[in-house]
Amino acid sequence: MKKKLSIIIVMNLVLSLAFGLNAFAADDMAESEATTDTHATEQVLQPSGEVISELTKAAPEMDSSKLKQHQVKASANLKSASTASKTQKGLIAAPQSISATAETYTYTGYIQQEGTSSYLYPIYVQPGSILQVQMDSPASAQLDYDLYLYEFDMSTGELNPNPIDYSIYGTYLNNYGNGPETLAENVGTRNVTAGSKAYLIEAYGAVGASINDPFYFTVSTSSTYDAFETDENALHAYPFTVATGGSTVVSRSINSEVDQDWYKITVPESRNYDAMHIDLDQASVGNGNKAELYGALSNNRMALIPSQNGNVSLGTGTYYLRVYTTNAYSDTNYSLHLQPVLRADKLVITGYNSNGGPNDYPSYAYGRYYRITGNSFTVTGVAATSDNYAVANSEVEVIWENEYWTEGSNNRYRSGKAWTNSSGQFSITLSLPSSTGSVSQYLPGAISFTHYYDICGVLAKVTDRPSTIDTDIVYHFAYSIYGG
Fold this sequence. Notes:
This protein has about 475 residues and is mostly beta strands. It has helices at about 1-20, 65-70, 85, 280-285, and strands at about 50, 90-100, 100-110, 115-125, 130-135, 145-150, 165, 175, 180, 185-190, 195-205, 210-220, 240, 245-255, 260-265, 275-280, 290-295, 300-305, 310-315, 315-325, 330-340, 345-355, 365, 365-370, 370, 375-385, 395-400, 415-420, 425-430, 440-445, 450-460, 465-480. The protein has three domains: about 10-45 and about 345-480, Immunoglobulin-like, CATH 2.60.40; about 50-55 and about 235-340, Sandwich (Jelly Rolls), CATH 2.60.120; about 65-220, Sandwich (Jelly Rolls), CATH 2.60.120.380. Helix content is about 5%, strand content about 45%. The strands form eight sheets. Strands 25, 27, 28, 30, 31 and 32 form a six-stranded mixed sheet that branches. Strand 17 and strand 18 (about 300-305) form a beta hairpin.
């Protein structure tokens, strides 16, 4: 009821303008059948999209203070690592899958005391191949495990104590459909040398420990991958700006079970949208690929932003987008499309039509407004952003009001809804009751007439943005009397 009352108030303001005008009969007042429509077509910009085939990394914006405070404590050397059972520090390995391009194993381990680590080494990677590692931590808000990746000096066998990659998310429990879980920690590297290289993986108990709740390492090596690997966590996210008409990434693939592709999106304060539509091509979705948007909280806690029909709500700030697989992987590139859901900040009525045609604008005593003839009334218009880009797929409602009909007559209001097309345009046709002919206008001349009509209000609004409106006055013609 409140919503309808607010519309009536707006209507009354419009109509008060008409009724407050001084009624007078101008000597040369006549129908302007030769005049043109006063509603010029609103010129809006058509948003253009882009295809992104090249990506460039930028310096990470996430907190790296954990890295500065951490030092590896493993005294590992390849020459002293005689057997795998000694070097895996009690971790249990189980093969997950082996294919022509990717080889994957899963290991189970425990952190038994806060501030201590569990190690897995040596992991050998062939020339030209990549290593991708995922650690799934226990689903506990009291535990925070981090993941570090180191390489060995192949000439001396000594471990380089500086990590070549690290994942240091804070623990934040998200709902992924299987109960609360924190985002997995992922690292990766590419062997660009001419010989095989060995690596060490460290799980570090930054906060808390558990002798009952294990963590899991999933280790994958692959010889085929896209040119932008590795970017296994948000600290390596590729930044790009989303075009007004949408941006599509077409040069990436998910090459293993634990491959993660990350992108960084910065939403400016001057944005003309409050949501983003994110989707992947159908073939990728069929393989189990998913795209998720995250917001980075303090301590690098990654909060999953809920999606509804592919749309995620967002405001000003930086967001991180993850593409990964829940099922299969493929060397075929996926297509990731991001489309800003443009915000309709402007709505303009551009024209009318009825039995008298679109150009029927007589200059009666109350001003020059469109005249409805008959009972079919069409309102056209356009929805746009504040910077004049056409807004597609926005629902618009048009309400017509005739105060000469009483509330109980069921003839005082008519309304209709429609969705804007790709050009932001809408067209809504209403079936009106007859005019009451409550207002008369004498038109003197060689042949004199008296016209009878009603003064009506028209309101167009975006249904989910009720402050985005346009209002106007129209006449509803009833009949004319010769020589009146």
